[in-house]
Every structure is written in structure tokens, then in C-alpha cells.
Design a protein that fits this description.
With 532 residues, the protein is of the alpha/beta class. The chain is 24% helix and 20% strand. The protein has a domain of 175 residues: Cholesterol Oxidase, domain 2 (2-Layer Sandwich).
Length: 532
């Protein structure tokens, strides 16, 4: 018997395990389907480039996307201690203040306005440069300035030549502009949630962590979650553990709606169709799924200027040696140290396009092979398209049907084209002239909007920011899965705490907002306020 059972050790699960077990009288069990984070690539900032296969992910793909020429999009979701925070590109952004104000004012998420969530961002943060009302220095999460690649500085200069402003802090008073991202690593080591929240408290007697343990079902009795069932990898036995207080679902943007549906919580007709008896008919489970979609420009360099110079085996070995000896060099980089936010739609209420600059090429699937290049990604931040996460069968080990429904809305397609044009404009500036030979993808022959969209349908990719399929909102809103207290509507003893509760995707990367959600959730669960 435990007080709280947590169903996944992603960023949210690690935060909850830490905060709830601070009280030695509270017994906490954290279950994680993946391995411990012992793979050294996890802790090397550049290692993420080799971790989007099946090594530390579920190996998912989407269903064919009808607005992307029926392509199935590779869809890595973390399956390792630390979850997405152990395999992401470590870019530290929070979104725009209006994102959270809209959660509160338009989506019924009372208590989740920017003024109310900002203290939790600050609480989590250990920033090595900034300390003001927007930034903290006492939290677990190590946030640092990168050592920028010289081409990143060229990119920042080029953006200003194109007429865009410079930003020294994307998470401060003004998000708009281009500059250098802060990152969740320090001194050449990734600052994952597992490293900074979980590892320091593993010796607590009241905290139990079990890896390679896949939760297959939430046990519901008389309208209350009383425990979970799980299986250990490669073993047939089903284990049951009980929770005297609550089951906390932290299985991720895809895993949480999947687990609820496997447990009979979701749209009754669809559950019956795959052989699951509905326990709680909640049609909104698996709906409202949304994500950011990238369209990129790849430019070939006129010399060995980018990180691609380390692709040959001997240079790769040299980079590894530099990292081992000095914790520096390309392996100590997150490979994406610059970017920015601006407007594709001049009527938008805040920047609606985000850019990630990579001083290298070849990280994206299906790219033309070039010797040395750079990549500029552009993504629409507030897409209107909505998709679903559904079960393919009643088998807990079967992959779910993931359908982000990318670009179903014409507006998303139009803004993606505009974002691509801005990316191309920046890459054409004088600052890049000494370094860029030509545009490799899509190439100068791709000129019209129709040609750009044809290219984008074939080569766009996820920005790895899925959210929304367990939507938070007012409890009387039929679109909601959880209320503002994150309790599953209509059941007791069950909450969802991860990126799946976001009613709308934030205008940024999603790791920091997920950690914020878990920090705030811990206080909600324990009945605390920021001042208590």
C-alpha cells in the first residue's frame, strides 16, 4: 500500500516524486516503463541526436496524415527515466504569458493564469545568468547560457539584418525577437528531470522507484481509483499495487490518454469497439490533441563551418575526446543554441512562429545528404488543427492510434508557408554570404506558395510538442477531462499531471511548462500555497 502511485517517470513524474516524498509520512511509488538513464548519450547534451530511435522511446509513428500526402510521421515519445527531458534538445522556453491567461479566461482553468503559474516557473529554476521577477536561482532545474556556435551568432545577426529585433531573454518581459536560447544543461551535462529532481532523493525511505514496469490499468472501484496494475518487461505476471490517497497519471501526452482508455475511462462506444468495458464514459479523453509542426530550410555551406565537420570518423573521435577531457566542444552543445519568435500573422495577439537554428544538417528524417550545412526550422505556435489519441486494441502493449491531424485547418497551412518564407529571408541575409553556398532544401526552384506547400507536405516534421488529449478545463465543460485541480472529472482519487492536460499548446517548447504543471500540482495535492 502506498499513499500515491505515479504512473510514469517523465518530467512531471520526477517532479511529483520529489515534492510529495518531501514529507516522510507520505509513501510514494513511481513506476517507469523504460530503463534507468544509464546510457551515456542521455547525459551528453548533443546525445539527443542519437536518441530519437527506439533506444529510449516507444518507437511510435502517427497514423497516415491525410494533409501530408498520407505520410506516417515518426513520433518519438520518451521511454526512459526522465522521459522527454532525457532525450529532448534542452531548449528552455516557457511560452507567452497570454497562453496561460487564455487557459484561465477562455478554457475554464481557474488558478492557471500567468501571474499564478509564474511563481512555479521561478521555483523550479536555477538560472546561471538571470535573477528577477521572471527567473529563479534556487530551484533544481539547471538553466544556462550555451556557448554559441559561431554560425549561431551569424544567424542572430542575419535576423536583425532582416529587420527583426534582438531578444536577450525569451522568457522575460518580451518574448518577441531573435537571440540565443537558454538551455537545460550545465557544465557539459544534461539537466534532465531525472537528474535534478529524482536522483537527489532516491535514498528517501518513503520513495520507491521501479523501472521497466509498464502500467497497464488503473483499478477503479465504486467510482474511485484505488491502485494500478503493471507488468515487468519480458515477464507475464500482472502486479497490483494499491493507493490509499491517489493515482497520479503522468504517462505523457500520448501515454496518459492511452492509459485512461485502457482502464475503461473514455468514449464508451470507442472503448467497446476495441473490446474494453467502459467504466466511466468520458468522451473527451483522447480528443483535443495538438502539436507544433516544423518546416525547414537547409543550406549548404561553402566550407567546413558547421558541426557537420565532425561527421567523419576521425573528427567524431576527436569531438568525443574533447568532451571526455574538457567537457567542451560539439558534444557539450545541444546543437540548437539559437532561435527566435516573430509574427507570420500580423493580427496575431503575440508571436506565432518559432525558429530553431541548427549549425548542422542531417538531424531531420529524409534530408538530402550534404557535406556541410545548416538548418533553420520554423513552426506555427498556435495551430488550429486538432487530432486524437485512440486505442488500436485492448492490448496494453499495442501502439495507440496517434493522429495529430496536422494542417487540417487552412490557416495552419497558410501560416506555415509564411513562417517558411521568413526563415528563407533570414538565411538570405548578408551575414550568411561568406558561409552559405546554396539552398539545399527545398532549393531555389521552389518559389510559389503551392510549391512550398508541396515541399512541406513531404518534408515537414513534428517539433515534439504534443499536448492536450486529457484537456484541463471547467468541470461542467464537456470538452474537459480534468478540472483545474487536475482531478479526472467524475472519479475520485485520480489526477492527470503532465503535458496532456494543456488545453492549448503553449507558444514554445513544452518541457519547462510540463515541469511547472507538476510543481503546481504538487502544491494542489498537498493543499499548499506558494506562501505556505
Amino acid at each position: 500500500m502506498y499513499d500515491y502511485i505515479i504512473t510514469g517517470a517523465g518530467p512531471a513524474g520526477c517532479v511529483l516524486a520529489n515534492r510529495l516524498s518531501e514529507n516522510p509520512a507520505i509513501k510514494v511509488l513511481l513506476l517507469e516503463a523504460g530503463n534507468p538513464d544509464r546510457n551515456p548519450l542521455i547525459h551528453m547534451p548533443a546525445g539527443f541526436a542519437k536518441l530519437t530511435g527506439t533506444t529510449a522511446t516507444w518507437g511510435y509513428s502517427t497514423v497516415p496524415q491525410k494533409h501530408l500526402d498520407n505520410r506516417e510521421i515518426w513520433y518519438p515519445q520518451g521511454r526512459v527515466l526522465g522521459g522527454g527531458s532525457s532525450i529532448n534538445a534542452q531548449v528552455y522556453t516557457r511560452g507567452h504569458p497570454l497562453d496561460y491567461d487564455e487557459w484561465a479566461s477562455e478554457e475554464g482553468c481557474e488558478g492557471w493564469s500567468f501571474a499564478e503559474v509564474l511563481p512555479y516557473f521561478v521555483k523550479a529554476e536555477n538560472n546561471n545568468r538571470l535573477c528577477n521577477r521572471y527567473h529563479g536561482v534556487d530551484g533544481p532545474l539547471k538553466v544556462s547560457d550555451p556557448v554559441p556556435h559561431s554560425l549561431t551568432s551569424t544567424f542572430v545577426q542575419a535576423a536583425q539584418q532582416a529587420g527583426y529585433s534582438y531578444s536577450a531573454d525569451f522568457n522575460g518581459a518580451n518574448q518577441e525577437g531573435f537571440g540565443y536560447y537558454q538551455v537545460t544543461n550545465r557544465d557539459g551535462k544534461r539537466s534532465s528531470a531525472a537528474v535534478v529532481y529524482l536522483k537527489p532523493v532516491l535514498k528517501r525511505n518513503n520513495l520507491t522507484v521501479i523501472t521497466k514496469a509498464t502500467v497497464t490499468k488503473i483499478v477503479i472501484e465504486q467510482g474511485r481509483a484505488v491502485g494500478v496494475e503493471y507488468v515487468l518487461r519480458n515477464k507475464p505476471d500482472i502486479h497490483r499495487v494499491n493507493a490509499s490517497c491517489e493515482v497520479l497519471v503522468t504517462s505523457g501526452a500520448v501515454g496518459s490518454p492511452k492509459l485512461l482508455q485502457l482502464s475503461g475511462i473514455g468514449p464508451a462506444d470507442q472503448l467497446r469497439a476495441v473490446g474494453i468495458d467502459p467504466i466511466h464514459d468520458l468522451p473527451s479523453v483522447g480528443e483535443n490533441f495538438q502539436d507544433h509542426m516544423d518546416v525547414f530550410v537547409v543550406s549548404e555551406c561553402s566550407g567546413d563551418y558547421s558541426f557537420d565537420r565532425y561527421k567523419p570518423l576521425h573528427m567524431n573521435a576527436w569531438a568525443g575526446l574533447e568532451y571526455l577531457l574538457f567537457n567542451s566542444g560539439p558534444v557539450a552543445s545541444n546543437l540548437c543554441d539559437g532561435g527566435g519568435f516573430c509574427f507570420a500573422d500580423n493580427k496575431a495577439r503575440s508571436p506565432d512562429i518559432q525558429f530553431h537554428f541548427l549549425p548542422g544538417s542531417g538531424l531531420e528524417h529524409g534530408l538530402k545528404k550534404i557535406r556541410n550545412g545548416v538548418t533553420l526550422n520554423s513552426a506555427v505556435l498556435r495551430p488550429k488543427s486538432r487530432g486524437t489519441v485512440r486505442l488500436a486494441s485492448a492490448d496494453p502493449m499495442a501502439a495507440p492510434l496517434i493522429d495529430p491531424n496536422y494542417w487540417a485547418e487552412q490557416y495552419d497551412r497558410e501560416m506555415s508557408i509564411e513562417g517558411f518564407k521568413i526563415a528563407r529571408e533570414i538565411m538570405a541575409q548578408a551575414a550568411f554570404k561568406p558561409f552559405i553556398k546554396l539552398e539545399s532544401m527545398p532549393g531555389i526552384e521552389c518559389k510559389t506558395d503551392a510549391q512550398i506547400m508541396a515541399y512541406a507536405r513531404q518534408h515537414s516534421k513534428t517539433d515534439y510538442h504534443p499536448v492536450g488529449a486529457c484537456k484541463m478545463g471547467a468541470i461542467n465543460d464537456e470538452r474537459s477531462v480534468v478540472g483545474p485541480d487536475l482531478k479526472v472529472i467524475g472519479l475520485e482519487g485520480l489526477r492527470v499531471v503532465d503535458s496532456s492536460v494543456m488545453p492549448k499548446v503553449v507558444s514554445s517548447n513544452t518541457n519547462a511548462p510540463t515541469i511547472m504543471i507538476a510543481e503546481k500540482a504538487a502544491d494542489i495535492i498537498l493543499g499548499k500555497t506558494m506562501n505556505s
